[in-house]
Amino acid sequence: MNNRLTGRVPRTLAALSRVHTIDLSGNMLSGALPAELGRLPQLTFLVLSDNQLTGSVPGDLCGGDEAESSSIEHLMLSMNNFTGEIPEGLSRCRALTQLGLANNSLSGVIPAALGELGNLTDLVLNNNSLSGELPPELFNLTELQTLALYHNKLSGRLPDAIGRLVNLEELYLYENQFTGEIPESIGDCASLQMIDFFGNRFNGSIPASMGNLSQLIFLDFRQNELSGVIAPELGECQQLKILDLADNALSGSIPETFGKLRSLEQFMLYNNSLSGAIPDGMFECRNITRVNIAHNRLSGSLLPLCGTARLLSFDATNNSFDGAIPAQFGRSSGLQRVRLGSNMLSGPIPPSLGGITALTLLDVSSNALTGGFPATLAQCTNLSLVVLSHNRLSGAIPDWLGSLPQLGELTLSNNEFTGAIPVQLSNCSNLLKLSLDNNQINGTVPPELGSLASLNVLNLAHNQLSGQIPTTVAKLSSLYELNLSQNYLSGPIPPDISKLQELQSLLDLSSNNFSGHIPASLGSLSKLEDLNLSHNALVGAVPSQLAGMSSLVQLDLSSNQLEGRLGIEFGRWPQAAFANNAGLCGSPLRGCSSRNSRSAFHAASVALVTAVVTLLIVLVIIVLALMAVRRQAPGSEEMNCSAFSSSSSGSANRQLVIKGSARREFRWEAIMEATANLSDQFAIGSGGSGTVYRAELSTGETVAVKRIADMDSGMLLHDKSFTREVKTLGRVRHRHLVKLLGFVTSRECGGGGGMLVYEYMENGSLYDWLHGGSDGRKKQTLSWDARLKVAAGLAQGVEYLHHDCVPRIVHRDIKSSNVLLDGDMEAHLGDFGLAKAVRENRQAAFGKDCTESGSCFAGSYGYIAPECAYSLKATERSDVYSMGIVLMELVTGLLPTDKTFGGDMDMVRWVQSRMDAPLPAREQVFDPALKPLAPREESSMTEVLEVALRCTRAAPGERPTARQVSDLLLHVSLDYYRACEKR
């Protein structure tokens, strides 16, 4: 064993008639397992685990017929590459006590014939692809001590017959699909020491009979659907060391009997609906090391869980605990993480916490704590995160915080701290977030903070800071958010702030005493989304460069002393953004009046002359256009109408995106010019909702324009539902969603339709990479690394639409041509929600019966969930189905309509049949363009297909949510990259 032997298992070993043990484990043997080995008359140990054996487990390994019987007692074949089903012939190994087939690629059901192995003590089948229900015969194995079936696809109920396994010590069923209630008969398995049912769908209550399991050490029911109260009888399991009931729907109180669990080490009840106090008796549970009771409704004191001096982590976030933070925490010198946020705790932070030198995380935010920083915390030199926000803490912020070398986040906001910001904080070179807002801090902003090169967030708002912004702030090159609002800062805004090129979320200098001009250089902050300079004493004109900030979503320059004319490009912001500036005029404010000043009169005169000249030019153009139209063939009239509808009466440039990521004004004629009147040479894609064109505008910006050709233009202009829908879509922001920049339409061309303007994705669509673009030619082969990255990005985009977007959005048309790739090959899902807007407009155009003709139907053939055939209603679960098809597309390289599937099979059934087939047939499911595959790639692709098959289950309720899909693909990605690192 463990000699790195290679090659096949020699068949000549079958001639060793007197051998008792063959142990070749931990080598690199390959090929098939010779069945002849099982017939050696005196062989009791056959151990070939941890090799690279392939093929099926021989059905005649234990003899060819019922008359024959093998002498093997220990058959260990785990950690190989065996495929196919578990052969029923193994039941002829009547002497077997141990059967190990874990960590292979076995499929099918567990054979009922295994129930004939009456001497079996260990049945280890975990980490395969076994499916179906547990055969009743399995519970005839009354000598069984270990039953390990975890990480398979087993389903159904756990039968009452489980109680017959009176010798069972270890029962591992986690990460399967078991349902139903846990049977009361489990309490008859009096020898049980380990029970792990994590990640199934067991429901109902915890059986009271489990109190009979006096030898139980480990109990994990996490991530199921258990409800009701926790059975008090569990307190009788006094050997219990690990109790994990988290992520269920349990209610009621923690049983008083838990005070008897004196051996308890890990106590996990988070994410339930538990209420009431912690039993006082639990103070005697002095072996507890990890406690997580977060996100419940528990109340009272935390003291009963602090009788131990062995704590390593403690999390009671989001409950209703009151009273003081127990000083007893300080007895646990190894305590690393304390989370007590969002409770009703009061009193000071106990000085005893300073004795916990191992402490790395302290979060006591959103309580009613008072007092100041205990000086003893200076001894906690491993602290990396300190969050004390939303309390009533007071006093000065201590200098010694600067001596915490690992400090990464310091959040003290919404307290009553006073005094100056300690310059010593500049020593915290790892600091990422510094939030001191909403306190009573005074003095100046220390120039020394400019040395914090890693800082992402600096929030000093709502304090009493004075003086100027130090020029060293420009050195914070990693800054993402800067908020200095609601202070007494003065002087000019430093132009060097424009060097903060990573600023994105916010630059807020409002409600201070800043004077001077707005630096034009602020316009170079190309990522900034929110700029607020309101309520200051700024003077002069508004720099035109601000209007060119394409990323800017929010702008507020109100309540200053600004003056001059605002160009039309500022019209994309509301009047409130410029209000209370007496000298400002122009779009979107009132027109500039001649009564304002001599310069205003001059400007008005210039504007009048310009208007007259423009009117004359327009009249000439109209005359020339009419003459040109008369000379042209009738078939060209529509295109010319679109191209030249530039007058105010003939062109409508609708900016429907109110809070989009990059609001701009797009003109119909500018787009028509950039695309040569929507010429085919600029077309980069097409679909059911319209054609997409690449448009390089005169500004140098490249955008993607989708023309929705079969929608009525006039109706678009007045369709409130369409307007509302597009406004909603424009507000959606996520790194894996394509940004909708605006919408334009032409009023003159009645059937001309509207155009949606999107950010341009330079690497085209996933469809182009897998199947070829409009020219029929594929790009270079997309590697598995890139495809896995696309899969994860797609899932994250859909997750955002379904779970985090307000309101939630159903995409309705997920397909590979709607998955677009940017310059870094990151996936961006496009056209989200568009199908609904198009459908509603078509309903208005065609009437209520449009669904009968299919003209209102959303989705693309091959990607549509089966239930849509009869309901015609798209849901989040139908989106998940479509996403599953795209995942299959990524692995197989095939379209869902590929002729490979034939007329009687679709992609889902084809993939399922190949996944259930022996190894050579299974390999057909992988894109040939990716072969030869490394083992880590093949394993990762198989896992993605398993996720895809879950997404495409026929019953919508059995499909995972988009969030679950995203989590599953994240784990697949992590496993894959870890495997890559081990190469």
Please, could you describe this protein's structure?
- GO terms for molecular function: ATP binding; protein serine/threonine kinase activity.
- One of its GO terms (cellular component) is plasma membrane.
- The chain crosses the membrane at residues 600-629.
- It is a single chain.
- The chain has 983 residues and is α/β, with parallel strands linked by helices.
- Among the domains are: 632-760, 2-Layer Sandwich (Phosphorylase Kinase, domain 1); 781-983, Transferase(Phosphotransferase) domain 1 (Transferase(Phosphotransferase), domain 1, Orthogonal Bundle).
- 19% of the residues lie in helices and 21% in strands.
- It has 15 helices and 55 strands.
- It has a 23-stranded parallel β-sheet, with no helix packed on it. The chain has a 22-stranded parallel β-sheet, with no helix packed on it. It has a five-stranded antiparallel β-sheet with strand order 49-50-51-53-52.
- The longest helix is centred in the middle third of the chain and has 34 residues, at 598-631.
- The protein is globular and about 105 Å long.
- The protein starts with 5 loop residues before the first strand and ends with a helix.
- Mean pLDDT is 85; it is low at 594-614, 625-663, 748-752 and 842-857.
